[in-house]
Amino acid sequence: MSNVSSSTPAGAIGSIAPLFLPNPVTLYETRARRLCALAEYEPPLRDYLSFAAQVVMVQQALSRQDSDAPMPTTTLHVDWVTPPLSMARLLQDSFWQESLTTLLAALSPHVPTPVQTVLGRLKKLDTVQRTSAARALLDNDTSLTGSDGAPFFWAALSLTAMQRVARSKIVVDEKSGAERHLCPLCGNAPVASIVHPDGLRYLHCRLCESEWHVVRALCSNCEGSRDIDYWSLEKQFPAIKAESCGECHSYLKILYQKDDKDVDAVADDLASLALDARLEDEGFSRSSINPFLFPSS
Ligand SMILES: [Zn+2]
Ligand SMILES: [Zn+2]
Predict the structure, then answer these.
(1) Which domain holds residue 51?
(2) What is the whole-number distance in angstroms between the Cα of residue 245 and the centre of ligand 2?
(3) Mind listing the pLDDT tens digit for each residue in 31-53?
(4) 93 C-alpha vs ligand 1 centroid, how far in Å?
């Protein structure tokens, strides 16, 4: 969805669209292509980026399948206070459980033995155990999925959230001064910022893949504005910076479409781990979790 032309603006207020909705047709195809390209560009991360591309390709196949299914028309009302996509309701949606089962089965023949062991462990969980593990994961607790199992759960949950957003009618309230550091649709944190070619900054939701507008002068974590800094490894990642905040001591990557129109929030964040190492050396911590890189609980 980092490609603006492939996503849908919602509730345009004046000349600024406050939200861009994910496009289920192009999102995963674009991301898989980007991951494969970055795998060639970043040899130390080649295996992991290729693995992430495999997961995204299964998401893409599942997304196509779900697009053909009949779906009740729902309305999601964005009031910038209470996210309308409830996580409790998401967990009751059987599509994420079916997607997880398909993911585990589809990936098993193609992954190395240690990953097969993880998949085998997850396959043995029953529906109730999977729901408990997913509920904990949505709360940033990987104790039930394991940090190695979390990306598969997240892939299924994220796909389901993205489909529900993409296939709902979205009504957006005009509201200024509201909190903007969490996704107005699902309440999750952004994985990265994307600066569109027109210079406007959007935060990209790590769960439902929507993007929402936040002015560039504000920290994407605490909304502070007093001590914002930008860091880069320009030769290695010309279209990526890290935006740090001296007030909350966190940082988030910021990707510039004018420097590379193909940047993808999830893929480029994952491929630029060298920049994370730099920021951690400077004493900052990530304000976000990449869907393919969960810390241990
Ligand atoms: Zn979201
Ligand atoms: Zn901050």
Answers:
(1) 1-297
(2) 4
(3) 999 999 999 988 899 999 999 99
(4) 16
The string of DSSP codes covering 38-94 is HHHH-GGGHHHHHHHHHHHHHHHHHHHHHHTS-----EEEE-SSS-SS-HHHHHH-H
Model's pTM, two decimal places? Answer: 0.93
pLDDT digits (tens, 9 = 90+) for 115-133: 999 999 999 999 999 999 9
CATH number at residue 219: 3.90.1670.10
What's the rounded Cα separation, in Å, for the pair 163 and 128?
A: 23
Instruction: Report CA dihedral (92, 95, 97, 102) to the nearest 10 degrees.
Output: 180
Nearest ligand to residue 20 Cα: 1
Extract the tokens encoding 209.
């893949």
Count of domains in the chain?
1
Could you give the 3-state DSSP secondary structure of residue 136? Answer: helix
